[in-house]
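Run folding on both entries below.
>entry_1
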Amino acid sequence: MDILSSQANLAGYKAVVESFANFEKAIPMMMTAAGTIPAAKVLVVGAGVAGLQAIATAKRMGAIVFATDVRMASKEQVESLGGKFLTVEGAENLETEGGYAKEASDDFKKKQEQLLSETLKKIDIVICTALIPGKKAPVIIKEDMINNMQSGSIIYDLAAIQGGNTAYTKVDEVIDKNGVKIMGESNILNKLPTSASNLYAKNVFNFVSNLYDKENKKININLDDEIIEKTLIK
């Protein structure tokens, strides 16, 4: 029934595909008679549903993948997919009871900036997925960080529609800063219409089916069902 998860999964996959299509180098390591091409280095910011799918997709295509998230529970998930989890020294677990990220403290943000600033110097592609429910997306990648990135690098910002995770993100525009391309669309799922619609239809069908009493063949608003109870407007 979880529409957010099904759609975020597709968004994470497509963000990697779009980034790789705009990257002007090979993604996997290639050893040839003419020399060796090193594997592309990918950083995924935010390891929720979209981020984890981005990690899995990038790994399948031969990239070296790093990831960071304020939720410490995501470390094991990132590593299970073959990614390297970047941990902020002395990090606290910034996870709500619902499993989402909450806003970080100023001290955490400062340490995260230092870690990211050094990491981004050697990263080729960045996939940004960090969101805080009900709030503007946090600006995680600042101007000076982008200025220090290698020319030819790509940043794909899935948080663009909520303000973006970078200082330069603009919705539906490709911004070029010293050779670094920053991309972000209002709805990346428009590029996967069939898959997105199929999953959305299944989400809605499962939700409506839960409202139907098959035995008595009628709609039953069962308030003892946690899902139904929490979707009612009172």
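>entry_2
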Amino acid sequence: MANVSVYNMEGKEVGTLELNDAVFGVEVNEHLVHMAVVAQLANKRQGTQKAKTRGEVSGGGRKPWRQKETGHARQGSTRAPQWKGGGVVFAPSPRDYTITLNKKEKRLALKSALTSRVQENKFIVVDEMKFDEIKTKKFQTVLNNLKVEKALVVLDGDNKNAVLSARNIQGVKTAAVNTINVYDILKYNTVVATKAAVAGIEEVYA
């Protein structure tokens, strides 16, 4: 089992924590991680784009001029794509971009992402993240003490003051144990988690 240092909010090491290999020590499956990221980004797409083809644009039912002897190129409709006000060639239409992964694939992808962060020493455990008031400056001070910038901060329970303190810091996102995802884990340089959050992740995904 991997051991990681546990820090306090002042950035001082206060102990160590043994991570569960079932979650933080699996064999990294890069293919599944890639599939999970692609699926997450695809599922965010609305798919509501629409343009009209020549068959959907109003008008243009009558041939603009006779076929021969006018000096013009032959035309069948004023709503053909080359005309102003004509339809769009291969126009986009509403579609569903949803990509589905089964539960086992999702879980293994998440475990792989967490394992990769531990292996790269980009997983920091904090004993607690408690704030008596909503103060962005205090949260930034904690990040400075931990020497992290772009970070995903995983919190346990109802930690409203910490969430609100972090929301205006650029490059920082907070997440609960049940809302972490592969894309966010890989997007941010470092994952910072409280001891209670680590225990919650191990309980849910082990």
